[in-house]
Amino acid sequence: MRLFNLIFVVLFLISFSFGQQFQWANSYNVNNCNEVAAIATDVNGNIIITGVHDASVSLPYTGNAYIQKCNPEGSPVWTEYLTGTIQIGDMATIDSSMLIIGHSVGQFTFLEQQYGTDEVFMFTMKVDANGLPEWFIIDETKYGANTNISVGENGNIALHIRGQYNLGDWIIIIDADGNTLNSKLLSATTTLVKDLAFYNNKVYINGGFNGIGSIVIDTVVIPSFSIEHTAFVLALNEDLIAEWAVGDTTINNRDGIIEANEKGIFTYQEVLEPPFTVVNSMKKYNFTGQLIKEVVVPVFSSAISLYPDMVVTPTRLAFFVQNAFNFDSHEVILFDSDLNLISEKFINGPSDLYSGQITAYGEDIILAHVHSGGLNFNDEIDLAYTGSGKKPYISKLSEPQFTSIKDHNNKSPKLIIYPNPANELISIRFNDLYYNKADFNIFNPTGNVVLSGIIQNSKPVIDVSQLIPGFYFVKLEVDNYQVFVCKIFKD
């Protein structure tokens, strides 16, 4: 019995000492890979990255592009190439298909087929699970660089596209077949949208502008400030009519990011505070535009953070950012959904300033970047480097999952806890295991016991209504000395 408790304590301490851990990292052979411009996961957890390769060193990278699909463990499934003069804007997925938006100077070739025209154009394309094109749309009146794409719960797609000569901002809603459902010109010259999120049929925008006087979108006023530029968050309803906006001072909000889920709206902005201090600000808003919380992101420098990315999961937020001036360190900063800092995870080794991307599949966090040497992931795993030039890599960050520890060699019964997330009661069930009673302890993320007791096989229910929202670990010790550990979420 002591042996099994000792094993549990060791595993438990490891879990709470490290929280989410890097599980694996893989490097891929894409010749002269300039960037990972975008990353997404499909409905099955497959990982897709895209970006430009074989381009010059000037920014933004313009040249041939690649699309690579990997399985959930990071093994390549297929890689395809777009040959031309291309900039990749963004990527998203619908079920097992992927969407890519970008900019092209003249025609490009994909799977031996010519796409586009001889003119400069914006393009959006949908590719199926096998890498075959489903549809392709272009617009020669739009500029495809600095574009964004976000998929809503109903499968419709929100696009942010720049106007001609990279001036102004269009918001366009299309369906899964590429048909335009609605569109709106925010401003022909003044606004500079950086990112958008499409949630519950509403579009949330993170942007900025520089000029004298405020901007009016429909009946909503975006205020201007007396110094420097204005950063704003703007909400558009189902008809793309402005509902509310909030503003802040910034230098230019060049790296603004926005995400939304059922917990709220999350933004990153580089805010300017008097007399002249740049603050890397993370904010949480409710769906009426009320600021719920604002925190300073603990980046390595108080100056502007170059090209960060972030993602929200059901319970947390992950922020991927450069961690050194010489680009030999990056970090993933983890917050819970109330913007409380959970942990910081460091990636050390020669990388690049301009391509870190992050996404999620459930609670698992997937990140991708380029590297030109060996990498160390928070002293948890190492990624070797061979060859020459920059190569893309993908890594997975997730919680260790301990399901059972036993005192004999029989097959472990399956533990089922439901509902999870829970609000008031959780039910405990074991497949193929009868027991009289089980002792339980519930631990918070710092390892303290917050609830304990006994459940009976005849009534396997635990009341968690008094726990504050968040995640917890449950230890169950049944009467034949089997110990089970699992994670639950409290709404």
List the helices and strands and how they pair.
Blueprint: H1 2-18, E1 21-27, E2 38-41, E3 47-53, E4 63-70, E5 76-94, E6 97-105, E7 108-110, E8 113-115, E9 120-127, E10 133-139, E11 142-151, E12 157-163, E13 169-174, E14 180-187, E15 191-199, E16 202-209, E17 215-217, E18 220-222, E19 229-236, E20 242-250, E21 257-261, E22 264-273, E23 277-285, E24 291-296, E25 309-312, E26 316-322, E27 329-336, E28 341-348, E29 357-361, E30 364-371, E31 375-377, E32 381-383, E33 391-398, E34 415-418, E35 425-430, E36 437-443, E37 449-456, E38 461-463, E39 470-478, E40 483-490
Antiparallel strand pairs: 1-33, 2-3, 3-4, 4-5, 5-6, 5-7, 6-9, 7-8, 9-10, 11-12, 12-13, 13-14, 15-16, 16-19, 17-18, 19-20, 21-22, 22-23, 23-24, 25-26, 26-27, 27-28, 28-31, 29-30, 30-33, 31-32, 34-35, 35-38, 36-37, 36-39, 39-40
Summary?
It contains one helix and 40 strands.
Q: List the domain count as a whole number.
A: 2
Q: What is the CATH superfamily classification of the largest domain?
A: TolB, C-terminal domain
Tell me what portion of residues adopts beta-strand conformation. Answer: over 45%
Low-confidence stretches: 1-18, 402-412
The gyration radius over C-alpha positions equals 24 Å
Q: What count of helical segments does DSSP give? A: 1
Q: How far apart lie the N and C ends?
A: 34 Å
Indicate the mean pLDDT.
88
Q: Helical amount among residues, as a percent range? A: under 10%
- Classified by CATH, the class of the largest domain is Mainly Beta
